[in-house]
Amino acid sequence: MTDARGPAPRDGAAPARPVPGTPCWVSLTVRAPDRARAFYEALFGWEFRPGPQRLGPYARALLDGCEVAGIGTLSADLRLPVAWTPYFASADADRTADAVRSRGGTVGVGPLDIAEAGRLAIASDPSGAVFGIWQASAHLGQDVTGVPGAPAWNELTTFESERVAKFYATVFGHTVQPEVSTDLDHVTLSVAGRPVAGIHGVGNGLPRDRGPHWTTYFTASDVDDTVDHVLHLGGQVLERPHDGVHGRTATVADPEGARFALVQASR
């Protein structure tokens, strides 16, 4: 699990703009923001400060002073699930939104300006999985990745990978790298030769009540301990800690039901 934004800037240097096609931000939509903030503050050590309010109450989460995620409140006119949503960087959100529509996807929100931060759209791919588009201006995206409490990876679970992978490759310019396996339907999306996200096809194994969806992985210093902490804070464990292709991982949900995954930090 690597990040394609390039190395962090040196002190005094301007922060690097996210490379188009790279997941550059994750945002949680909830009905009870105070409860969500308390949960993630206790779990990951996040602090919060107000963000742009264009789509309703919104706060940015900070980890040691670095922005890592956002939490927004669902309004009655936004038909979005309680869920974590990854945002992919775009040089032109309007053109990207047009590409989404032309390839069989749907644009549900925007594109619209979010104050001076940038331009946003929320869309779904042809299978129905929701994702965001972010054209950065003042807000470039997450400041850090891969450290405990920060996003590390995003993976799409869908019916089958081939068709939907072509959609993301066309819309964002991803290179598609299939898994070399006869019994595993998995591809990796890459930007400039670096992996940025995965797509896992599970066929009829996809839960009917869930549908195709993106999952954000957050780094944990110890996955087993963090899972215990999730339970203590009122969350749920959906997939117990286990060792797999990404290392030691687990899938959990916060008290409102928003799913996310944990991945063990490299030692």
Automatic annotation (TrEMBL):
The VOC domain covers 22-136, 150-265
The organism's superkingdom is given as Bacteria
Keywords linked to the UniProt accession: Dioxygenase, Oxidoreductase
**CDD domains, per this entry?**
SgaA_N_like
User: Could you tell me which PROSITE patterns the record lists for this protein?
Assistant: VOC
Return the SUPFAM superfamilies for the record.
Answer: Glyoxalase/Bleomycin resistance protein/Dihydroxybiphenyl dioxygenase
Name the Gene Ontology molecular function terms of this record: dioxygenase activity
What InterPro entries does its record include?
Anthracycline_SecMetBiosynth, Glyas_Bleomycin-R_OHBP_Dase, Glyoxalase_6, VOC_core
- This protein is called what? Glyoxalase/bleomycin resistance/extradiol dioxygenase family protein
- Give the source lineage, highest ranks first: Bacteria, Bacillati, Actinomycetota, Actinomycetes, Kitasatosporales
